[in-house]
Amino acid sequence: MASRCWRWWGRSAWPWTPPLSVGSIPSFRHQFSTQETTPQICVVGSGPAGFYTAQHLLKQHPQAHVDIYEKQPVPFGLVRFGVAPDHPEVKTAHCGRCAFWGNVEVGRDVTVPELREAYHAVVLSYGAEDHRALEIPGEELPGVCSARAFVGWYNGLPENQELKPDLSCDTAVILGQGNVALDVARILLTPPEHLEKTDITKAALDVLRQSRVKTVWLVGRRGPLQVAFTIKELREMIQLPGTRPILDPVDFLGLQDRLKEVPRPRKRLTELLLRTAMEKPGPEEAARRASASRAWGLRFFRSPQQVLPSPDGQGAAGVRLAVTRLEGVGEATRAVPTGAMEDLPCGLVLSSIGYKSRPIDPSVPFDSKLGVIPNVEGRVTDVPGLYCSGWVKRGPTGVIATTMTDSFLTGQMLLQDLKAGLLPSGPRPGSAAIQALLSSRGVQPVSFSDWEKLDAEEVARGQGTGRPREKLVDPQEMLHLLGH
Ligand code: FAD
Ligand code: NAP
User: Fold this and answer.
1) What is the pLDDT of residues 316-375, one digit of tens each?
2) Residue 352: beta bridge partners?
3) 355 forms bridges with which residues in the sheet?
4) Which one, 53, 102, 116, 352, has least CB within 10 Å?
5) 312 CA from centroid of ligand 2 (Å)
6) What's phi and psi for 12, nearest 5 deg?
7) What is the pLDDT confidence band of residue 86, given thresholds at 50, 70 and 90?
8) 388 to each of 184, 267, 391, how far by Cα in Å?
9) Nearest ligand to the C-alpha atom of residue 265
């Protein structure tokens, strides 16, 4: 039996949502008659989108039952496998009338039509599990990997445990200037003793301890006014112990005058960049920078064209970049090549130009150009009773707060359709039918109480070393520990 109570990891970027309590549900829920059939709803994916969609449905409907299916044996999606280990914070949420079924991959172990048959409604919240490719020569060379795989590696995502990046080089280049790029740069440059108290995997910590990487370049095809990272993450980078920033003042000329045109968050971010690039640091900061053994730099107006092979062809020796200039204004500002080229030597290339969703099942429409399930406010186009939320709904951008808002909206649409009689009437078997199918296929789901045992095991393994937990990274070991 799946457990009814969730402990749920988050971080400061998360908005506080009060624990769900069945006794304090706002007025909207009273619009549903208590005589109605119990709506059986299924959510695919247990990241923020899945959990927040479930939370909304349970809070706003007094009888709804929600089952969450998750392919990993453990819940929480990118909160466990994406958010950087040096950014921890624990939040809790409690939830009733809800079950977690881990170790069930929808599209492989059970199909979406089978779920639709068993439930009144299905919500797809399965995130973005792929990365956007650079589509340049040399991308397949050893020494080149996606930031997505690198993040998965240090955060214990089972499929990335074989990555073992070679950090024996002096210089790493990260292509892209978003928050994922900054996360990766920070993990590469943070003194290992500062990571020892986080839940980064032991294997990653061991590799990082041996790292010889001294300089990390973050390369953007546009300019300082177009960086995709945010101020909090930039500030952390500027203050990172043992490192100094490398910014070319030439990139910032004339920027001060343009600040009045830009919205306030972008203005504050650009001011911080300007101060760091143009102002002479005070004596304390100057001394800190002078003693730094590692450096990170922002390289602007450079678009990647090729990863250059090492002489033996067995690794990366650098990245060939097209020098760009900007055309257009505001959001439409584009980088166009000037014709000039520049080679940036390095031994490690991490491409951080965005995540990408995959199609889940031939019966579900998918826009492969945009990498999303086509939908109107969460209702999947032309498939009644099918909904989506999170990154698979709107693309792979936005923090957890954004994902929460769009998940609540999807939940609202679903409940509107339920109230309007647009979902199938009559009882549906829900998990009973799916458990029978899974059992006939030899799939053993992991319940939330199973996860709590794994959680306790991770915490116990972390004890004594001063770490919050030692993550289990092998699904077979997890299933073995559960006696499956
Ligand atoms: P996900 O979190 O990816 O969840 C999708 C879930 O679906 C996963 O558990 C996956 O295993 C499961 N799944 C996939 N396919 C299937 C299938 N076929 N069957 C069953 N289950 C499936 N935001 C912040 O606010 N703060 C941060 O510090 C922060 N750090 C981030 C760091 C990184 C590296 C990244 C990439 C993002 C970060 N974000 C952060 C953004 C945040 O993680 C996203 O907004 C959020 O996770 C998106 O939620 P989601 O539920 O759509 O996707
Ligand atoms: P992102 O914010 O979309 O950044 C992608 C970067 O890649 C941009 O600099 C973009 O430049 C560049 N890029 C895209 N295509 C390119 C190409 N073909 N060639 C060169 N550069 C290219 O994506 P992300 O960094 O993966 O982050 C995803 C989301 O998660 C974001 O919303 C982010 O804020 C969030 N997140 C938050 C945190 C946090 O809160 N701490 C941490 C990590 C992630 P252009 O602008 O020129 O396209």
Assistant:
1) 999 999 999 999 988 889 999 999 999 999 999 999 999 999 999 999 999 999 999 999
2) none
3) 131
4) 116
5) 32
6) -60, -25
7) confident
8) 29, 34, 9
9) 2
Residue with tokens 């900061």: 285
pLDDT value at position 95?
57
Distance CA 419, CA 295 (A): 58
Alpha carbons within 13 angstroms on the beta-carbon side of residue 364 total 33
How far from each other are the two terminal CA atoms of the chain, in whole angstroms? 14
Dist. CA 176 → ligand 2 center (Å)? 6
Enumerate residues lining ligand 1, CB below 6 A.
Answer: 11, 13, 44-50, 69-72, 77-78, 82-83, 87, 105-107, 125-127, 129, 151, 180, 183, 355, 360, 390-391, 398-400, 403
Strand partners, 376: 379
The 10s digit of each residue's pLDDT in 55-84 is 999 999 999 999 999 999 999 999 999 999
Q: Could you tell me the CA-to-CA distances from 296 to 74, 229, 323, 448 in Å, in that order?
A: 34, 15, 20, 42
Phi, psi of 57 (to 5 degrees): -60, -45
**Per-residue three-class SS string for the chain:** CCCCCCEEEECCCCCCCCCCCCCCCCHHHHHCCCCCCCCEEEEECCCHHHHHHHHHHHHHCCCCEEEEECCCCCCCCHHHHCCCCCCCEEEECCCCCEEEEECCCECCCECHHHHHHHCCEEEECCCCCEECCCCCCCCCCCCEEEHHHHHHHHHCCHHHCCCCCCCCCCEEEEECCCHHHHHHHHHHHCCHHHHCCCCCCHHHHHHHHCCCCCEEEEECCCCHHHCCCCHHHHHHHHCCCCEEEECCHHHHCCHHHHHHHCCHHHHHHHHHHHHHHHCCCCHHHHHHHHHCCEEEEEECCEEEEEEEECCCCCCEEEEEEEEEEEECCHHHCEEEEEEEEEEEECCEEEECCCEECCCCCCCCCCECCCCECCEECCEECCCCCEEECCHHHHCCCCCHHHHHHHHHHHHHHHHHHHHCCCCCCCCCCCHHHHHHHHHHCCCCCECHHHHHHHHHHHHHHHCCCCCCCCCCCCHHHHHHHCCC
Tell the residue number behind the tokens 């709590």, with chain if given: 452
Phi then psi for 130, rounded to 5 degrees?
-120, 175
* Closest residue CA from atom 53 of ligand 1: 127
pTM of model > 0.85 = yes
pLDDT tier at 465, thresholds 50, 70, 90: confident
> Nearest ligand, CA of residue 71?
1
Predicted confidence band at 261 (pLDDT cuts at 50, 70, 90)? confident
Note the pLDDT of residue 392: 98
**Please, which residues bridge with residue 146 across strands?**
351
Mean pLDDT (the chain) is 91
